User: Fold these one by one.
Assistant:
Number 1:
Amino acid sequence: MNASSGSTVTSDPATATYLLSAFAIGDWGTTTYKGSCCSRSDSYSNYDIVAEDVVASLMNTEAGNAAVKSKVIIGHGDNFYWTGINSLEGRDSRFTTTFEDKFDGANIKTIPWVNVMGNHDYGGASYVCSSGDGNAKCESTDALIQGLERKFEWQSGYTSPNDNRWKLEGHFYVHRIEDPTTGVSIDIFNVDTNDADTHGAMQICCQCYGYSNGDSAKCDSVGRGHKYCAGGDTAMYDACFNKFAEWGADSRTQLKAKVAESTATWKIVNSHYGPYDHYAEAGMKSGLTF
């Protein structure tokens, strides 16, 4: 988070009176059942099983107690485990079950929720395409690309019954919050980073959990050309990977332009993957250099 080049920040953060506040949450979208996609090495408690309910309750309590009420909830992606929204017909029911009915406390129910897509929103590592409300093998490269685009559209096109709080306006977009009395403002730059070198496009495009019939142990060393990576279809894999590269490059191009134009007091970049942990050096520098 950085101050605008046109602003002078003179207050001490340790003693300052805050004018704006926000919640931030990531990897938060629970499944509709109690379980995991993957082999498990450790046991888990009842709190883990109902983690989203616990977090939602804590957020509502903190929002009620806060001296400065949150103007936004910043969502870092992975909004719907394990494979995102699988159909337009099933979308509203899924939103109701794992979003609206979970984060329904009186203190948070109408706060704008500003989102980006995570890898699991695009399919995770399962089949990207759908049959009904389930995952299905993509029969062609065009079907795979259409599947990715629909995964995005089914979330971005949703209208929340609670003050239209769900926001996902594009692969890149800017959302501003502002204190009307003082004019102090924050611009939130939302970026699609699923072209990340680690744990991003490669796993989504390989779809190994689908091709290996859900055997996650077979996916540890799978890559382009492997029979469990897009069924060995390198053209399909490359087209998928290039689509994420296109979205990522466009997001970063717009980010640099919009940051330069921004008059906000503070600036936040919201993404699913950070440049340090998930990008090789070239991608890391691209994400940090303005």
Number 2:
Amino acid sequence: MFQSAKELETIFLTEGVFYRLLTNNVSHFCRSVAYIRRKGSFTDGTDALFVLLNPGKSLPVDGEDAIPFLTGEVDILPILPATPDNTMFQLMRLMERMEWNHVQIINLTDLRTGKFNEYLDGQKLMRTHRDSRHSIFSIDRYPELLDIVEGTDHIIAGWGTKQEITGAAEEAYTVLSELGEVTGIPYNKQPLYYHPFPWLRTKCIKWLDDMEEQLKGATKVV
């Protein structure tokens, strides 16, 4: 079963923590964490934490004007209602299969972009100016990461298979694997994992099938 976006929007709601990051007079839209919740469910726990490459096209429901500039700690920013993107809809499909009520999404970088070249340019800018605020895997944001991971049942990596992200993926995998078992659909080069939304419907269904099979034989994060 491959539910439509319209159908999924009647079942789930999405939220996110958004901010603008100013680095060397260049402003970036960022999202530190996203939430997908089943409507009508009330639970404190998180069924799964998805760790992806970077936020895609999701924005606050009220638009870009609702996004504040970062002036303090990321983890004190408000949670805003958000519009879902294709990746979020794909995660909702997995939630339906697993009968999950609540998942969270973090990324190797908070910098929001839908194009890989823009991702690379953003990472280069951050390295050049030694600005690590965009990454929840930076030392300064470790308490924030720890708080998120400790509340989840499963850690699922899906940051993609591009060679250029290997360094960031290795860094994230090292940190995450110390906190719990990291699952996902592994690529032939580790620690790279297939992205949940590979665009082609047949491949999307295969990811769902493989992930469901893996999860139903997995244990929760200890």
Number 3:
Amino acid sequence: MKLVERVMGAAFEELDAEVQALHRGSGIRSGRIDVHTAPLARLLGFPPSAKDAMLWFAVREEDGKAIWMRQINDRELRSEIAQSGAHLAERMNAMTVISEPVCEEGALVLRPLAMRAFDIPLPRALWPKVTTREWGEDGTYRFSIELRAPLTGRRLLAYEGWLSPEPEG
């Protein structure tokens, strides 16, 4: 049983089949992605804005953690996802987000519960507004992630796209 399935328990079975397949699988998948990156997000290591960019995605489990590698055009983005009690802790660059994974109408939605920057807890007033959704559509895994600035509501980072249904050979 892989990480997200362990954390969600029986609720994992309510997710769209495409989402279950991605979180139970391993290997490399390809797809397309649209990315909007504000200057602050670029400084934090996120890839530049791009429309209909090539996406390579690889996932593997290592020491109980899920290692996600994304390559958007020529830029790599890595995150480590671990279990934190009944929640998920995703570390990407200097940020760690503790989230509650829930199923909403077949989609996997991550609800942020805590955030850290450089391992320092952030007060809720400084959290960016994070919206994360993964779902299946016509046999394809789809995703949408958006971060907005806490005080102004300006978009800091957004990406959405799809991945092939099966890992590459």
Number 4:
Amino acid sequence: MQSSSIRISDGDTIRLNNQRIRLACIDAPESDQPFGSQSTQKLSQLLGNGSNLRVQSVDTDRYGRTIAKLYVGDVYVQEALLRDGLAWVYTGYLDTCTTTAGSLLRAQEEAQLYRRGVWSSDESIAPWQWRQR
């Protein structure tokens, strides 16, 4: 899909041709949270101009957003964000990614092992906890 109308809202939400899309199975840091801007920048870098973007819809959330797995060529976008330590596996929603859950968990474990991104600090707060502050 070639599209010039991709807008990145944050590290786990985009707008594609006026369709709001939330990345399935991950939760990226909020914009005002440590690593929030890095996560958003990485997502923008991964998506580029939208060429070779594949959106695999898995659900719709209560806000009307499409919940989807994103691929750019052979790159699974959620896995790339996790591997760089720029998102958490959203375990409460992992059932929507049954075929890729293992790779997502392994990517997060790798980021934790090498202390990348959010895992570089022992005091990182998951986005779902940050939102409750």
